[in-house]
Amino acid sequence: MFDFNDVVVFARVVEAGSFTAAARLLAMPKTTVSRRVAALEREVGVRLLQRTTRSLSMTDAGRLYYEQSSQALRTIEQANLRLAEARTEPSGTIRISAPVGFAGHFLISAVVDFLATYPKTRVELRLTDDKLNLVEDGIDLAFRTGVLEDSTLIARKLGATHRLLCASPDYLARQGTPGTPSDLAQHDCVIAGASAVGAHWTLDGPSGQQTVTVAGRFAANEMQAVVAAAIAGYGIAQLPHGVAEALIGEGRLRRVLEDYTTPAGGLYVLYPSSRHLSPLVKAFIDLATERISKRVNTA
Question: Which residues pair with 271 in a beta bridge?
């Protein structure tokens, strides 16, 4: 049976110039080196080396075999070296998908930390509220919120998220501030969805959970557009906790119905398979989940 190790021994004999020198390099007995080369010659059916008591030389077949096999050995050695480097210092490009509203507050700082920690890496961040097909779109991992659909993806839960109700100071000055969830029916609401008519918001509050019908002049299925419309004064919006906190701190929005939030939903990182997970992807998942889960669960 063919043994690839015999090829390695043959190449080392050629490079060292003798069986004795190759034996020292390989840390094995000279007799074992000679036996392995002989086994290789039997396997390929030709003599590869001419041996005398004073010299060692390659046959024409041996020279051809060495030239071809040594290229393969160098390729394997380089692959092993790159894998070893990847285990100690991740390198390469990682492609990440995340919702627009989530990325600004939670993800960007993790990406910045990752690039600083691993200078041989690159990050391609695709921000969209659409659920991409990770395999077809070449995405290494994705962050998603809410209830996950059944899939073959591997999911790791980072924590729970919820949304706050906010509006611009200008809107509240013009239209007043709602005192109860039922008052939302009298207000313009910025809808995160396909239609601005007939939407329903479910809120958790002091008396439990209640659902109210809301409507408004603007709807969008992309969170960045919802945020922009709320800041521009087009109504009350439900915004991710982290996004809302930042804009409230800047004075661009104010929180309304402070005793109410949306029901908590899950925050997950997803990737196609845990089998053969590359060191690059594993390093980002480990770093990002540590930072993001702390921020989410203390938010």
Answer: 154
Q: Are strands 208-220 and 188-192 parallel, antiparallel or unpaired?
A: parallel
Instruction: Extract the tokens encoding 215.
Output: 């409507």
The predicted pLDDT at position 240 comes to: 82
End-to-end CA distance of the chain: 62
Going by C-beta distance under 8 Å and a sequence separation of 6 or more, which residues neighbour residue 189? 199, 201, 214, 215, 216, 235, 236, 237
The b-or-e profile of 106-139 (16+ CB within 10 A means b, else e) is: bbeebbeebeeebeebebeeebbbeeeebeeeeb
List, as one string, the DSSP characters of the chain. Answer: ---HHHHHHHHHHHHHSSHHHHHHHHTS-HHHHHHHHHHHHHHHTS--EEE-SS-EEE-HHHHHHHHHHHHHHHHHHHHHHHHHHHHHS--EEEEEEE-HHHIIIIIHHHHHHHHHH-TTEEEEEEE-SS---TTTTT-SEEEEEESPPP-SSEEEEEEEE-EEEEE-HHHHHHH---SSGGGGGGSEEEEESS-SSSEEEEEEETTEEEEEEEEEEEEESSHHHHHHHHHTTS-EEEEEHHHHHHHHHTTS-EE-STT-BPPPEEEEEEES-STT--HHHHHHHHHHHHHHHHHHHT-
Q: Which pLDDT does position 293 carry in this prediction?
A: 64
pTM assigned to the model:
0.54
Mean pLDDT by 10 residues, the chain (299 residues): 83 86 88 91 90 83 88 80 68 87 71 90 86 80 75 77 91 95 93 81 89 91 87 93 86 94 82 70 85 58
Q: What angle do CA 99, 101, 106 make, to 5 degrees?
A: 90
